[in-house]
Amino acid sequence: MSVFNKKTAIIIHDFIMTVIAWQVSWWLRFNLDIPDNYLEISLYTLPMILLVQGLVFWRFSLYRGLWRFSSLPDLWNIFRAAVFGALCITLVLFISIRLEDIPRSILIMYPVFLIFLLGGPRLGYRVWKDHSFNFKSVTDGQRVLIIGAGHAGEMLVREMLRKGNYLPIGFIDDDLSLKNSEVHGIRVLGTVEQLPAIIERYKIDIIVIAVPSATSEQMQRIVSGCEESGIPLRTLPKIHDMVSGKVVLSDLREVLIEDLLGREKVELDWKIIQQGITNKVVLVSGGGGSIGSELCKQISALNPAVLVIFERNEFNLYNIQRMLENNYPSLKMYAILGDICDRAKVDHVVANYKPDVIFHAAAYKHVPILQNQSREAIKNNIIGTKILAEFAVKYNCNKFVFISTDKAVNPANVLGASKRAAEMYCEWMNIKSNTRFVTVRFGNVLDSDGSVVPLFREQIKNGGPITVTHPEITRFFMTVREACQLILQAGAMGEGGEIYVLDMGEPVKINYLAEQMIKLSGRVPGEEIMIVYTGLRPGEKLFEELFYENEHKDSTVHPKILLARHPAINLEFLPDKLKIMELACNEFDEDKLKALLHELAPELQSQPQQNNVVPLNKIFRDAKDS
Fold first, then answer.
1. What percentage of the chain exceeds 70 in pLDDT?
2. Which ranges of 46-150 would DSSP assign to H, the alpha helix?
3. Residue 472 is inside which H or E element, if any?
């Protein structure tokens, strides 16, 4: 039902209640046996009663309040409208008929009945919808403008009125039909476009975004409208990040870059995912890293029989173990300190726990560092993957999910080439064994270890400057939660041999990322915090890619996951090459290792700094159309 129709229904309801209140007053006055002449007078005066009372309803803005958010200010409004209406009616009757044949008791009973008849349905609807009611009115505090007049905004205002630390001044909402509506007596003042004028007019101290379901585009638009004011900005977490379904003031936090670059909540087929995790033994390598630890959290919520966390960083292992013990006390978990390049250790762990599923997240991933240390990249990313994969096959692991990167496509650096070689090895092992090997490829994860977000945050904290390599450099980004959810989904879908590619959305310019982080910190880009361009680093590309040119992009049952199909590759040479690589690692022969890496990933030899990339959103549209 449209808001217009809702308001029409409310007006009709209130006029009916006015008629009932007026007539019931007459009937009770005469003990339900009203004489004919008095009945005639009550009906004769009824149009005038409706006209006067209707004008009073309009004057007291009785139709601005939303029934499901009815509160004490709304009841107070009804009380005033009923009493003032009775006084006006008395005055009009006196002027018109000198109150002749109008019992005075009726003019007293009428507003009493009207208050109950108008307030009762409103409160009943509120209790039915929300099972709660707020008896607090506005108090002193910081003057707050709330963006979003929905359910979250209502709960937030109710909490503010109850605690009294904030003074809610008004709402902002782009739903034009809500203009001048009221929630707990707080009016919807306008839309996001009108923010600057509203902020100045009402002397706002703080702005709160109460739209937990907002997309990144909506958040960008809202934040852009707020930034010029220089007023502190707070927001509620996303719906799926809230601990409970209720909004409390303690949920308020600063707006993060993830709010601007993250996407809408990913819809997953949890039934399929649970079938692959619940009551299974699951091993996560690199379980203390940014991707690995988030995988461990999500896997723990799916009731695995056993979760084995394999991590070589002692402190990271301690952190994830403590967190899971606190949040999942019934989880059967083993935190194993070890290195995937330690063949004896990997053999012992896989033989002892016999995992049904392995998520291989352990990897070196810092481009500039690895560019000059090929041995460590190859040893960890290729040989480590080879060792873990071999023992997965030896001990009959059902599924091995390898987590790759967009840098493995047309690799311009040692990191990308090492991950591409690992992709190829997983494909080879899938052909030669009963273990199902599935590869998941995606781009950068916001705020992950070693990413630009924590670097920029530290540079802003130190007063700048922020260092960006090139004004045109772009990267794909997604949140760690979204990445891991899609990894679980892709892993559950995979039957073996697939390379799944996650929908990374639109690429983001790194200088835009820097500017937004500066603005969110309350500073002015280019004035208070400078952005300095340092030039592309060795092995760094302007644009990342997620597909090779010869890979066919197939859609899958999940709209955010594509399948990269490529022509058959002869991989018979691969085991021998990796054996030679392993020997070269033991001999610290960097030149030989680089030569072998070039053989496995020929693109590494002459990768241009700038490459032409088909936008990923076009790829996904084309795949869906085909």
1. 83
2. 46-59, 72-97, 104-130
3. none
Q: What is the domain range of residue 91?
A: 3-130
Domain boundary among 74, 95, 130: 130
482 burial level (CB within 10 Å; 0-12, 13-18, 19+)? buried
Tell me whether residue 463 is in a domain.
Answer: no
Residue 537 included in any domain: no
Residue 587: exposure state from Cβ atoms within 10 A (0-12, 13-18, ≥19): exposed
451 in a domain, yes or no?
Answer: no
Q: Are residues 38 and 148 in the same domain?
A: no
Among the listed ranges 38-52, 170-184, 237-251, which one has the minimum average pLDDT value? 237-251
First to last CA, the chain: 38
Is residue 432 a contact partner of residue 497, using CB atoms and an 8 Å limit? no
Tokens 């990913």 -> residue: 266
How far is Cα 449 from Cα 364, in angstroms, rounded to an integer?
Answer: 11
| Residue 210 half-sphere exposure toward CB, CA atoms < 13 A | 29
DSSP code of 529?
A: B
Choose among 120, 119, 94: nearest CA to 107. Answer: 94
Q: Are residues 208 and 63 in the same domain?
A: no
Say if CB 149 and CB 175 are below 8 A apart.
yes
- pTM score, two decimals? 0.66
Query: What is residue 201's predicted lDDT score, i.e. its pLDDT?
Result: 84
| Mean pLDDT of the 183-209 span | 82
The predicted-structure confidence for 315-370, as pLDDT tens digits, reads as follows: 999 999 999 999 999 999 999 999 999 999 999 999 999 999 999 999 998 888 88
**216-227 vs 510-520: helix axis angle to the nearest 10?**
50
- Report the domain count for the chain: 3
> Does residue 168 sit in the same domain as residue 235?
yes
Provide the token pair at 196.
Answer: 């600057």
Q: How many CB atoms lie within 10 A of CB 148?
A: 24
Q: How far apart are CA 384 and CA 392, in angstroms?
A: 12
Single out the residue of 506, 538, 545 nearest to residue 609, CA to CA: 538
Examine residue 462 and state whether it is found in any structural domain, yes or no. Answer: no
Centre a 10 Å sphere on the Cβ of residue 84 and count the other Cβ atoms it contains: 15
Picking from 474, 473, 496, 476, the residue whose alpha carbon sits closest to that of residue 560 is 476
Q: CB under 8 Å to 114, separation ≥6 — which residues?
A: 17, 18, 21, 53, 82, 85, 86
Q: Reply yes or no on whether the pLDDT at 616 is more than 50.
A: no
More confident residue, 179 or 279: 279
End position of a domain, from candidates 130, 159, 194: 130
Q: Give the largest CA-CA distance in the chain.
A: 116
Which phi and psi (to 5°) does residue 46 adopt? -60, -45
Mean pLDDT, rounded, for 37-61 = 82
